[in-house]
Structure formats: C-alpha cells, structure tokens
From TrEMBL:
Keyword match Disulfide bond: no
Protein name (record): Tetraspanin
Family: Belongs to the tetraspanin (TM4SF) family.
Keywords: Membrane, Transmembrane, Transmembrane helix
Source organism per UniProt: Ameca splendens
Protein location: Membrane
PROSITE patterns per UniProt: TM4_1 (PS00421)
CDD domains from the UniProt entry: TM4SF8_like_LEL
UniProt signal peptide: none
Membrane-crossing residue ranges in chain numbering: 12-37, 49-75, 87-108, 207-234
C-alpha cells in the first residue's frame, strides 16, 4: 500500500512537472530570442558572435524540453518502462546542456566589459549623423534607449570626427532629455549626464544574468523530474517481486 501511494504521488508530480516543462520550453525559446534581438541592437558595441552560443543552446534546450514534456506525459500515464527511461535520459541531456549554458553565460558575462571598452571608441569615431550609417543608428538608438550621452559623459563628443566636421559646438539630438533641445553644449542641463559605456556593459551583463538564472531555475525543475521518474521506475521494477511474495504467502 505504501509503495503504491509513493508511485501515485510520484506520477502526479511528474505529470504536473511535464505540464510545467511545456511552459518552460516556451519561456526558454523566448529568452533565447530576446538575446538575439538585443544583440542585434548592441552588436556594434560587442562584436564577439560567440556570445550568442548560450542563446542558441537555450533555444535548442527549449525545443527538446517540449518533446520531453510529451514523452513524459505519455510514459507516466502508461507507466511505460521504456518511455520513462527515455524521458530520464533526454532530461539528463537537457540538464547537462543547461549547466553548459550557465558556465558559458558566466564566461561571456566576464568578457562583456573588455569587449565594449575596445569597440565603443571606434564606433563613436565612425559616427556621421546620417541614418544610412549603421554606427550612427546604433549610437542614436543606445543614447535614446539608455538615456545616456557620449562614452563617459557628453563632453566625449568634442573628441570625435563628427564634432570636428560639424563645428557647431553641439552633440547629437539623441543626447537631449528635454523637448526643444538642440544638442548645444551651451545648455548642458538639457543633455543626458551619464555616459553610455557603463550602461551598455550593465545592459549586456543583465541579459546574460537572465539567461543564467533561467537555465538554473529550469535545471532544478528537471532534477525533480528525473527524481520522480526514477521513483516510478524503481517502484515498478520491485512490484512484480512483491506480488510474487504475496501470492506465495497466500498459497502457503
């Protein structure tokens, strides 16, 4: 009776977890897609494409997790030994994949600051203020989105080629924080005071932390799923022996 109760409880938890796995699959794919979209906005400041490896892995893990949920539900309801074994093995593979995502996430998170420091000066030097220029679009987007101006502050614009050519003692309009601002350096109170370098680094590191915490959270759920599946498998493998002993005792 106790053994049957344990199996029933494990099956109930397992079915519930499989439903969560389906939701988790969607969340993992969303997080991976979010990293891709954000990278596209900041790719001029961080050109190491290997940063996208955790995002690729997490999307693949999401797709596998959806398949796992399907296998797990069917195998749990039918109490299929083969199905549950497959479920545990695939779940273990996804778990290992997510551990790899966490490790890579920490590695690339540490590299963000150096990458941004190396590339941001070059990007600002290539700014020409036209919409056809990719660097100009990237800088204007970042300055508006993060509410920043220049590399360390708005005075950095005075050391750029764009400033030397324009000769109007102003910064791009994207530096403006008030309506009617023209970007003139004679009115610094109308400009964003904080530089973009630190904010870009912070933004990219936050994205990596989203990936890391998402992978850790679902890795913990998968450990619980593997544990429940193993309980059902172990109990079922002992059930025939237990029934044989009961029947033998009854006949005696």
């Amino acid at each position: 009776m106790m053994g049957q109760c344990g199996i029933t409880s494990s099956k109930t938890v397992l079915v519930f977890l499989n439903l969560i796995f389906w939701a988790a699959a969607g969340i993992l794919c969303y997080v991976g897609a979010y990293v891709f979209i954000t990278y596209d906005d900041y790719d001029h400041f961080f050109q190491d494409v290997y940063t996208l490896i955790p995002a690729v892995i997490i999307i693949a893990a999401g797709a596998l997790l959806f398949l796992i949920g399907l296998i797990g539900c069917c195998a749990t309801v039918r109490e299929s030994h083969c199905g549950l074994t497959t479920f545990v093995v695939v779940l273990l593979l996804v778990f290992m994949t997510e551990v790899a995502v966490v490790v890579l996430g920490y590695i690339y998170r540490a590299k963000v600051e150096d990458e941004v420091n190396r590339s941001i000066i070059k990007v600002y030097d290539e700014y020409n203020g036209t919409n056809s220029n990719a660097q100009s679009r990237a800088i204007d987007y970042v300055q508006r989105q993060l509410q920043c101006c220049g590399i360390h502050n708005f005075s950095d614009w005075q050391h750029t080629h764009w400033y030397d050519k324009s000769k109007n003692n102003s910064v791009p309009i994207s530096c403006c924080k008030t309506a009617g601002c023209t970007g003139s350096l004679t009115h610094p109170e109308d400009l964003y005071q904080e530089g973009c370098e630190a904010l870009v680094v912070k933004k990219l590191q936050e994205i990596m932390m989203y990936v890391i915490w998402t992978a850790l959270t679902f890795a913990a759920m998968q450990m619980l799923g593997m544990l429940c599946a193993c309980v059902v498998l172990c109990r079922r493998s002992k059930a025939p022996t237990y029934e044989l002993l009961i029947n033998g005792g009854t006949q005696a």
